[in-house]
Amino acid sequence: SGVLVSGTGTFLALVGTRVADTGPASPALDLKDRSHDGHFGIGFGLINGASAEVRASWLGGNHSAGIMATVSHVTVDGCVVVDTQLAEYRDTSLAAPTQLADGIALMSSLSAQISHSVVFGSKRAGVLMDGGLGIEIANLAVTGNLIGIASQSAAKVALVGNAVWQNSQANLAADIELVAPVAPKVVVQESPP
What's the confidence (pLDDT) of residue 36? Predict the structure, then answer.
């Protein structure tokens, strides 16, 4: 796995970093049991209200997502996210496992500013937004993915000055019902008396 940041009040600045070739666990995990523990190949994961800035970094060959932010605040600027590979995702609410492979995946984001970056070669969406508020996608180059930019579940997003071209299935897509991982649940364990 790559980098994982979790928890309200937690902040990480990732600058000039290379996160590459994170591999999925075997066998595939049910994320309701091991929610977002990094074992399904995410390059950079952000969950549970955490905040991060990812700048001037290269994320390539990761599985499931190059960058995934779930119920968090994220800024991505001047990054390259390439060749995100498929990894199996299991959820008990689904009839069968599905495959994830999104360059940048924003699930129920509290805020996200993604700018001046390149997203290329994702096996699913270059950028996936599933719900969320205050999302701004500006000045991206998004090409060579299955889907360029996908927005669903009433994501509140502003798209400004992006170059989105030559994605094999669609450049821009709305409400196409791609499976998105569920937000992790915090489990509080009490110490024995």
Answer: 43
Nearest to 102 by CA among 151, 49, 161, 145: 145
Radius of gyration of the chain from its Cα atoms, rounded to whole angstroms = 15
Give the dihedral of Cα atoms 52, 151, 66, 60; nearest 10 deg: -130
Between the CA atoms of 80, 111, 44 and 58, what dihedral angle is there, to the nearest 10 degrees?
Answer: 10
> What pairing do the DSSP bridges indicate for beta strands 18-20 and 58-60?
parallel
What's the pLDDT tens digit per position in 18-62?
999 988 765 444 444 444 444 578 999 999 999 999 999 999 999
One-letter amino acid of 159? L
Amino acid at 112: A
> Which pTM value belongs to this model?
0.87
| Three-class secondary structure assignment of 135-186 | EEEECCEEECCCEEEEEECCCCEEEECCEEECCCCEEEEECCCCCCCCCCCC
Check residue 30 and give its pLDDT.
Answer: 46
Low-confidence ranges of the chain (pLDDT < 70): 1, 25-39, 181-193
Counted residue by residue, the chain has a size of 193
